[in-house]
C-alpha cells in the first residue's frame, strides 16, 4: 500500500474535505461593487494557471463580473481578489466597467 493512500485519511481529517467559503467581509452585499471586464489575456505566473482562475478569466472575457463572483469561482479571499483585479486594471488587461447599479465608471 502506498504512503499516499495511508496519509490521505489523516490529511482529510486534519484539513477537512470542503474548501472554506470565500471571505466576503470587504463586500457585504454579494452583488455590490464594481464590475470588471477582461480586455486581453494577462501574462500570469505559472502558479495562477489553474482551471479555476483560467475559467473565471474566460467568463470575464465574455461579460463583466464582480469581485465577489470572481472570489467565489477561484476560492480566494475577497481582499486577494480585489487586489488581483485592480492589478489587471492597472496593467491594462482588464477594466472596471460599471458598479452594481449599472452606473458607468
Task: Draw up the topology in text.
Elements (H helix, E strand, L loop, with lengths): L2 H13 L19 E4 L12 H12 L2 E2 H8 L3 H14 L2 E5 L7
Antiparallel strand pairs: 1-2, 1-3
Detailed description of the structure:
With 105 residues, the protein is mostly helical. The chain has helices at 3-15, 51-62, 67-74, 78-91; strands spanning 35-38, 65-66, 94-98. The chain has one domain (23-98). Helix 3 (67-74) crosses helix 4 (78-91). The protein is globular. It starts with a helix and ends in a 7-residue tail after the last strand. The model is unreliable at 1-6 and 22-29 (pLDDT under 50).
- Contiguous low-pLDDT stretches (5 residues minimum) are 1-6, 22-29
Largest sheet: 3 strands, antiparallel
State the helicity in percent bands.
Answer: 40-55%
Global geometry = globular
Computed structural class: mainly alpha
Strands in their spatial order, largest beta sheet:
2-1-3
H-E string: HEHEHHE
- In terms of quaternary structure, the protein is single chain
Please give the number of β-strands: 3
Amino acid at each position: 500500500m502506498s504512503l499516499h493512500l495511508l496519509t490521505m485519511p489523516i490529511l482529510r481529517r486534519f484539513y477537512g474535505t470542503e474548501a472554506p467559503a470565500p471571505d466576503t467581509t470587504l463586500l457585504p452585499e454579494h452583488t455590490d461593487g464594481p464590475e470588471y471586464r477582461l480586455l486581453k489575456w494577462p501574462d500570469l505566473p505559472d502558479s495562477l494557471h489553474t482551471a479555476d482562475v483560467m475559467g473565471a478569466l474566460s467568463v470575464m472575457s465574455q461579460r463583466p463580473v464582480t469581485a465577489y463572483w470572481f472570489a467565489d469561482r477561484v476560492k480566494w479571499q475577497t481582499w486577494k481578489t480585489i487586489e488581483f483585479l485592480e492589478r489587471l486594471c492597472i496593467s491594462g488587461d482588464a477594466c472596471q466597467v460599471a458598479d452594481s447599479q449599472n452606473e458607468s465608471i
